[in-house]
């Protein structure tokens, strides 16, 4: 009887703690994520992020927690722990999670410094350019440098006269090519296109994930029309491979419908084994800010091979 009373008391206490607001422990945090399901048919399976044949998957679905804790009038601790939740196939049950952005750091009048796994600031520079982000038509299919790396230090400044500077550093012992590497980005405008209808970025990466590259990217939103462009020169650290790439994207909002198109081309042979080009067209149907249905068709052309994929998907962000 006493044991039952004790268990009941503990359960009641846990339930009380669970219902307290997040700020009770002097920290503000948010649990967030993206649930996505996609049915896709892919021709040959050459392209990344899509297997040959008809597949049902949960591309880049995730769950995470992020927040901050004010330490004093000068410093605030910031953190993020995020994992990718893999698809529905039986093989995924052995390793159902994969690491995404996970870090801890400080922010203040100086900006923000975090340590851990994070998107390089070279990847960060793309902003809202990629109309088919996190699908088989993602620009990383052909464009190098779209990396998320562990054991990095990331600095992001506050905005100053509509400009923001950010920097990624990876120590020699933690970098894949055993060399200290960095990425630096300068952005003018709002990369999320909320405060300004435009964003222009200049970025350079050196010795991160075995590449050296420079890019300029821009996105402009005029009423319902959004246009984007990127140019990039890339080379491998050993100099054996080099070339140029570019991306052009466009979308137009028609009430809840958003038709869009994108073209990407690269001849550096860093992401694919030969010159590569990819064009994609699709349409989104936006139910609300959290829920979107989409249909896309993408075609990847290499020198000796080709692949195409058509996909129907539904994603929900929370």
Main traits of this protein?
single chain, 318 residues, mainly beta, Porin, 16-stranded antiparallel beta barrel, 2 helices
Structure description:
It is a single chain. The protein is mainly beta. It has a single domain (25-317), classed as Porin (Beta Barrel). Helix content is 7%, strand content 55%. The protein has helices at residues 2-18, 121-124, and strands at 28-42, 53-57, 62-70, 76-85, 97-108, 111-119, 148-156, 163-170, 181-189, 198-208, 211-222, 225-236, 242-252, 257-266, 276-286, 291-301, 306-317. It has a 16-stranded antiparallel beta barrel. It is globular.
Helical element count? 2
Task: Note the beta-strand portion.
Answer: over 45%
Strand order of the largest sheet: 1-3-4-5-6-7-8-9-10-11-12-13-14-15-16-17
Mean pLDDT value: 90
Q: What is the H/E string?
A: HEEEEEEHEEEEEEEEEEE
Q: So, the CATH homologous superfamily? A: Porin
The CATH topology is given as: Porin
- The CATH architecture category equals Beta Barrel
**How many strands, which pairing sense, and closed or not: the largest β-sheet?**
16 strands, antiparallel, barrel
Domain Porin: 13-301
Main location: membrane
Organism: Pseudoalteromonas haloplanktis
Keywords: Cell outer membrane, Ion transport, Membrane, Porin, Signal, Transmembrane, Transmembrane beta strand, Transport
Write a concise synopsis of the structure shown.
Residues 1-26 form the signal peptide. The protein is mostly beta strands.
């Amino acid at each position: 009887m006493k044991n039952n009373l004790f268990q009941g008391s503990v359960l009641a206490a846990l339930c009380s703690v669970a219902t307290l607001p997040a700020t009770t422990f002097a920290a503000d945090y948010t649990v967030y994520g993206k649930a996505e399901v996609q049915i896709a048919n892919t021709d040959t399976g050459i392209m990344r992020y899509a297997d040959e044949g008809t597949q049902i998957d949960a591309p880049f679905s995730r769950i995470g927690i992020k927040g901050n804790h004010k330490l004093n009038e000068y410093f605030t601790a910031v953190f993020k722990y995020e994992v990718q939740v893999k698809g529905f196939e039986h093989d995924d049950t052995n390793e159902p999670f994969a690491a995404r952005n996970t870090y801890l750091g400080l922010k203040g009048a100086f900006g923000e410094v975090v340590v851990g796994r994070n998107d390089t600031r070279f990847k960060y520079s793309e902003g809202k350019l990629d109309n088919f982000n996190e699908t088989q038509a993602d620009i990383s299919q052909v464009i190098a440098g779209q990396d998320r790396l562990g054991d990095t230090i990331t600095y992001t400044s506050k905005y100053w006269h509509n400009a923001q500077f950010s920097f990624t550093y990876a120590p020699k012992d933690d970098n894949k090519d055993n060399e200290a590497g960095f990425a630096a980005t300068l952005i003018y405008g709002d990369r999320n296109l909320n405060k300004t209808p435009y964003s222009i970025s200049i970025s350079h990466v050196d010795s991160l994930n075995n590449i050296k590259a420079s890019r300029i990217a821009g996105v402009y939103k005029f009423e319902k029309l959004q246009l984007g462009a990127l140019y990039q020169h890339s080379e491998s650290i050993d100099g054996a491979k080099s070339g140029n790439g570019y991306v052009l994207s466009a979308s137009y909002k028609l009430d809840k419908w958003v038709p869009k198109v994108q073209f990407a081309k690269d001849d550096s042979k860093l992401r694919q084994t030969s010159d590569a080009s990819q064009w994609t067209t699709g349409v989104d149907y936006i139910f609300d800010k959290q829920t979107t249905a989409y249909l896309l068709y993408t075609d990847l052309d290499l020198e000796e091979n080709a692949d195409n994929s058509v996909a129907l998907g539904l994603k929900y962000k929370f």
